[in-house]
User: What shape does this take?
Amino acid sequence: MEATKANAAYSAGAEDLGLLRKKLEKEQRALRIHAFLKNKASVVGLVLVLLMIVIALAAPLLTGLSGTDPYTNAVTQRLQAPSAEHWFGTDDLGRDVFARVIYGTRISLFVGFSVSVLAGAAGLLIGLYSCYNKVLDAVLMRICDGLKAVPSTLLAICLMAVLGPSIRNVILSLAVVSTPSMARMVRSAALSAREQTYVEAMTCLGATPSHILWRHIMPNTLSPVIVQMTFVFASAIITEAALSFLGAGVPVPEPSWGSILSQGRTYIYTAWWLILYPGLFTAVSVMGFNLFGDGVRDLLDPLSH
Amino acid sequence: MAEQKETLRVDSLSTSFHTERGLLKAVDGVSFTVGKGEILGLVGESGCGKSVTSQSILRLYDEKYTAHYEGHIYLDGVDLLALSPAEMRKIRGSRISMIFQDALSSLNPVFTVGSQICEPLMIHQGLNRKQAMEKAVELLRLVNIPAPERRVLQYPHELSGGMRQRVMIAIALACKPELLIADEPTTALDVTVQAQIMDLIRELNQKLGMSVMLITHDLGVVAETCDRVAVMYLGQIVEQADKYAIFDDPRHPYTWGLIHSIPQLDGDRTKPLYSVEGMVPLLSQVPQGCCRFAERCPKATAHCREAMPELQEVTPGHWVRCWMGTGEE
Assistant: This one.
């Protein structure tokens, strides 16, 4: 921004070139978007992701349309098949499955988003500082190794057992589970950036180590972090569903996809709709985020073309 | 020349590295001075310790795990090796600057060149971004980059090789350093651009009165640019003299070999070009207790293999590390 002003102040002749530059940037952006759109899989992913976000945001609106809500029990209407009144049928307590699945989208996306942001931030911090100090590196990386040695779902269950079931704790434990791989990735990207001559050149200019770390190494690790965050998003959704299915996740009566599935398990032979819809939503959203992540990776990583 | 005020005095500097094979000395007792406004050339084959010497001056190696320094490096009478890391950081980039061989990898690909020229100004002179950006434009003009107000907005990959090296020089000059260390600044460039960059360095040296330490293996560049030359072999200085003395009257067989392995325009084209036999030995296999060059030296005698010669002054200002240096040729 400041540069643009300096540019204008220094010569009038450069102004049209500034315009040219903007035009070029626009062109490049268009090219990238075109490349993204050309990849059918990532477009499908993008559409699914957007669809899920819209569903989550418009949940009250959608349930208003169907005239139902996710919490009201109606014992007289239990285990009804999908109909004009209950689009996805009702469960064993007579609650509307459509409303529950729609509200479940909110929980899943909230959990996925929080976990990916938390794990991204923690991974960035741990990864960067471990490339900065050898002792810290050894300590942090051994902790990460230890966390990675335990299967992630199992670790998440353990953490939930210790912390007690609540949405906040689900987010916390999933963030703990996803951070080690994020930290490892940041560390490797940071290590390779650290060996670049421009880092040495910055040292030659008298920059402090933390200045170099945050202003010069960090930006070079961001794109893998963003890509990894989309995958953490997807895996957080599915692990949250698994935890809730096992009763170690989002506490009832909150409508999590996993707990809807879990309750429906008993009636699997008589009420298929209890299994199909939450299962479908889980599968579709996870697939959407994974396809989207692949697309973002291709976009950000020039080597993968 | 010797009367000139010194900017830098390096006094028996040794740099050793901790490796799997133990402590290896890459630079072994190197002493030299760079006078005010002088251009000193540091030449030698790959692996002879030129770059290690220059990076030791800025203390760029990690002293905790990697390297160990001995000796003294005086910048205007202050011993750099005795400074704390924070004090050292104040020197880097403001009083001593360095430019590297490969300008593309020396520039961070994610920032515009303008913002990278701003960095030293913001670090050392406490300018804000806007002031620094205006200064950056001036600096780019100083290093003869056309349309500097446009270039500051561009990214390193958008510039040509010569342009990038100019940007590096602009960054190095930002705080008007007393000493510029140029580590093979033109190796990655083609010959025409190389000449332009060398001209620029010489011009700035004269205009700003800045001392330059030029590290290179290109004797042609040395002949054109430097005032004085130090020749290094295996971590030691083997010959140090005025540029003319080095080229007209090389006393060390290694210097002689280097000079004679350059093709001459009027040379005899039927004879193969001279080359210094053998290879630079690995650091762990440096010959001890004898002249380090003895194995490759065409004139080596038994005495050369038994004792290490010291640097001795053969004519005023001309120092040679050879048993035969004092005699004819």
Remarks:
- The CA atoms of residues 144 and 284 of chain A lie 31 Å apart.
